[in-house]
Design goal:
The chain has 58 residues and is of the alpha+beta class. The protein has one domain (6-55). The protein has 3 helices and 3 strands, in the order βααββα. A 3-stranded antiparallel sheet has the order 1-3-2.
Length: 58
């Protein structure tokens, strides 16, 4: 079971209105911190999503 404070990358991209490619670029550039539970299970903390939604990625 995944912690309820985590959100999938698909959900993050959808909520931000961006493509998964753009989101991966932001992750690679360090603009979006992620939590890796395994090689294939990568999440973003809801707190970080809220920051992105209010502050943007600069």
């Amino acid at each position: 079971m995944v912690d309820e404070s985590l959100i999938t990358l698909d959900e993050v991209a959808e909520r931000l209105g961006i493509s998964r490619v753009t989101l991966w670029r932001w992750v690679k550039d360090g603009k979006v911190p992620v939590v890796k539970l395994s090689q294939r299970k990568i999440y973003v903390r809801k707190v970080e999503l809220e920051k992105l939604m209010t502050e943007g990625t600069k």
